[in-house]
Automatic annotation (TrEMBL):
Keyword check for Methyltransferase: no
Keywords, ordered alphabetically: Isomerase, Pyruvate
The keyword Metal-binding is assigned to this record: no
Protein name: Maleylpyruvate isomerase family mycothiol-dependent enzyme
Comp. bias intervals (Polar residues): 32-41
Example GO molecular function: isomerase activity
Domain of life from the UniProt record: Bacteria
Stored SUPFAM superfamilies: DinB/YfiT-like putative metalloenzymes, SCP-like
Domain called Mycothiol-dependent maleylpyruvate isomerase metal-binding: residue spans: 74-210
Chain residue ranges for the region called Disordered: 1-66
Lineage, highest ranks first: Bacteria, Bacillati, Actinomycetota, Actinomycetes, Propionibacteriales
Amino acid sequence: MSRTHVRTSPWRFRASLTPRGGTSGDAVPDTASPSHAPPTQSDRDRVGPRRQTGCMTSDPTPHPDLTAALDALHQSEQHLLRTVDSLSPDAWGEPSVLPGWSRAHVAAHLALNAEGLAGAVNGLAHDVEVPVYESGEKRDADIEELSQAGPAEIRERLFGAGQALRDALSTLDAAHWGGSIARVPDGPQWSVVEVPATRRREVEIHHADLDAGYSHRDWPGDFAVELLDLATEDHAASPDSPVFTIRATDTIRTWSVGAEQPVVEGTAADLGWWLVGRGRGEGLACDSGLPRLGPWRRTPAPTRAP
């Protein structure tokens, strides 16, 4: 498929949030664009004309690795919905792990995040560039607005948005899976092949942020390891982070963040929670004391084809 995109980071969407006792940001694509229907004329007026594409295949079957990623995302979202359904009406307004955000804010963010991703993916399927969200300011305002709605409305939006994203991804053929979407108008292009893993990261981290019975120690083992792969790479590339090595005691693996010493040890989940700026390093050990982390920021990586 021929699209004149400038590809930079395939899955580096970020919001700056500082968790209680932590130092860094949000989990990944952040959005508040509610459109997940086929692009309208107003969409086309906003994002520009349809781009010419090359020969397209009609085979909608994703690569086997993508099938596994989509299945893992579905399981993570089902677990999230069970937790959301367990919340009493009063519990929605209680604080989450994220300062200034109630549980309703976290759930609203997750709903709007999926809606925006669905809109962008649906735009890609129709060869029209639709950004994930219009601006950071609009994203924040929409989260605040939805967080004030009733629990039933937020839950309905969350459930519907997850389904809309799955539906949008299911329409992509092999050529579109090699495409990209824009986080904001005229912004960087992100590889659509990473959307399932990116969304799963949003779901798993923010599920624990709800502080409603599901914690980082409930993360699937494969997710915790994938998070360590990414977060250590990001900290190694950040000028604000110190150098160290982590050793996951439950996987017998090590990751270098620029130096062999000092070594921080703990379970993969505890290490991941710490690296993304949550908590105070509970469950971790380091002979010289835990390094003082800089903010977790995503860094560019080569685009991967399916």
